Amino acid sequence: MKPCQSPQNRLANSNQKGASPLRKRRGGERVGELAVLPVFYKLKGRQVVVANGTDAAAWKAELMLAAGARVRLYAVELDEAFDPLIEQYGAQLEIENRPWGQDCFDLATLAICDAESDGEAQAFYCAAKAAGVPVNVIDRPRFCQFQFGSIVNRSPAVIGISTDGAAPILGQAMRRRIETLLPQSISDWAGVARDLRDKVSAHLEMGAPRRRFWERFVDLAFGGETTDTSDATAEDVFQRCQREATPKGKVTLVGAGPGDAELLTLKAVRALQGADVILFDDLVGDDVLELARREAKRMLVGKRGGRESCKQDDINATMLKLAQAGKNVVRLKSGDPMIFGRAGEEVAFLERAGVETAVVPGITAASAMASQLGVSLTHRDHARSVRLITGHSRHGQLPTDINWQEMASNGTTNVFYMAGRTAKQLEQKLLEGGMEASTPVAICASVSRKETQQWIGSLSQLGAGIDVVGYENPVLIGVGETFAAARQQVPALANALPGGFEVNLLAGNG
């Protein structure tokens, strides 16, 4: 080891000609400025002083008790919030029926007070500080040496969130976001990890063997499997992770929903967080991809009608190659992968090759369209069934095997996917099949996205309506009596169209 130098001398030496620059921290940049230092402090068996018997004090006392502390409460009156704490924790909670005093800080590790006034807050703060006890006066930041943040509890895994008192509501919102990403079973898996730590250190060499073991452990923990903390389970997990430490590839087909990232399912987000490689469609937005693991490689493999696209055979071959290399692959598809997404072909191809596959469903665009328009696709007064129909065959035209007379029957809501370029043919075929010209029709482009457009009219106006909305963005066309209600909910912005028709166009209100 080199002799210790002062920071000033080290800086001076590093500035000398030929001297090597000061090294950065291993793994990246220096740590940026921290408003507070996140420290996780063991309180089991230690004494904590809580002053006053309010509801707020009860909440802080419960946190201390849950962490194993012995709480000494000084209060003349007690809020009923203390009743369950007295029942649950018994002797761990000691109650002194008197106001706090200078003598209450003896042997205390922390001191907490819900003060009635600034004067009491300052007095408690000064007394605790003089006794050398870290102090927190609830909701009075200038009398706090430490703060309570929002907590995500998956004990023994515990996450604390702080905004340094600047925005508690923001901290709570951050906690809710994190809660959605962590399954409840993480608590049990963290307990198993704690039990296995010594055994892994004793049986596996440092470096790659241990890293592969723990990587497989994490895959199991976040893969939706449940476990418990028994010795037998810990041994089973140890043996399994050893056997499966060599990575085995997998492909998960994930529905990205109609566009709005907040419409993803929790399972979809967890799949993105665990991916090594993501093969995504052209319609998947950047805000959806932002939810993926930062280290994951992203590959665009989109297919769009009328545009240059990846061939399905090439997509299949890429998924297979990656999976055989041991990668965890996510095939991210717009909407629901099992509705007009060719997912069935991809699953069959991969299973024939012996690759493990899974499917995570997504919200299909028809559901998002109904929500955006404020209509029910199966309104009991109008529809007994729903049809989801492709409006685009592999040859670029309407499919030739559709029974248009059946489409024209009453009592069914029809939603045509990918029908922008064939909308005028669709109008003609439905009219020829016997559907009334006055049948309500809705066109939605980029449903659920910020740039969404929607048009409401009748079947005889459909061709004119698509000229207004266009078909450069993904288009859905809904046909049926249920869409009559949407007319009354879409703000009327009259637009004169050829032939004297008037329709309502709503743009940018997703």
Task: Describe it.
The protein is of the alpha/beta class. It folds into five domains: about 100 residues, Rossmann fold, CATH 3.40.50; about 30 residues, no CATH class; about 60 residues; about 110 residues, Cobalt-precorrin-4 Transmethylase, domain 1 (3-Layer(aba) Sandwich); about 140 residues, Methyltransferase, Cobalt-precorrin-4 Transmethylase, Domain 2 (2-Layer Sandwich). The protein is about 35% helix and about 20% strand. The strands form four sheets. Strands 13-14-17-15-16-19-18 form a seven-stranded mixed beta sheet, with helices on both faces. Strands 3-2-1-4-5 form a five-stranded parallel beta sheet, sandwiched between helices. Strands 10-9-11-8-12 form a five-stranded parallel beta sheet, sandwiched between helices. Strand 1, helix 2 and strand 2 form a beta-alpha-beta unit. Helix 6 runs antiparallel to helix 7. The radius of gyration is 31 Å and the shape is elongated. The termini are far apart. About 35% of the residues are buried. The C terminus is likely disordered.
